Amino acid sequence: MSINIFGKTNAESSQRVISRGVTLSQAVNTFLRRDGKNAAAENIYMDNHTLINVSDPAHAQDAATKNDVDHRAVSKSGDTMTGDLNMGGRSVQDCLSIIRHCTIDMKHLVGLKSIV
Fold it and tell me: In the chain, is it the N or the C terminus that has fewer CB atoms within a 10 Å radius of its CB?
């Protein structure tokens, strides 16, 4: 295959040599593009480096940022809820000692079947 002084060949553009003998198709198939036009085929090993300036997640399979987790997740060690908690028909277990020592506002018990 002949290459002219501009690094171009007589073959189609994907076979054009772009740098040090590497063709465009080899580069696209070997390297992860920064513009997102190809996808990683394997895990990406970061060697203890971090990803920075990552946007907050918008879709179900997006990675969560620390900021998003810190502000949306409920801490297991204690937190304050600002909205309703939909339990999806499930109950809260092992909390009788808490209920016995709390004052319960009856207006929030609408639809509750029993407290044992």
Answer: C
Chain segment 31-81, per-residue pLDDT in tens: 888 888 888 888 988 899 988 888 888 998 998 888 888 887 777 777 777
Half-sphere exposure for 61 (CA within 13 Å, toward CB):
0
The pair of three-digit structure tokens given for residue 56, joined into one six-digit string:
């907050």
The CA distance from 2 to 11, in Å, is 9
**Measured between alpha carbons, how far is residue 27 from residues 11, 19, 32, 99 in Å?**
16, 9, 9, 64
Residue 114 token pair: 């029993």
Helix (H, G, I), strand (E, B) or coil at 95: coil
The domain limits of the chain are: 1-74
pTM: 0.39
Rounded (5°) CA angle 70-63-68: 20
Q: Is 96 helix (H, G, I), strand (E, B) or coil?
A: helix
Cα–Cα distance, 100 to 96 (Å, whole number)? 6
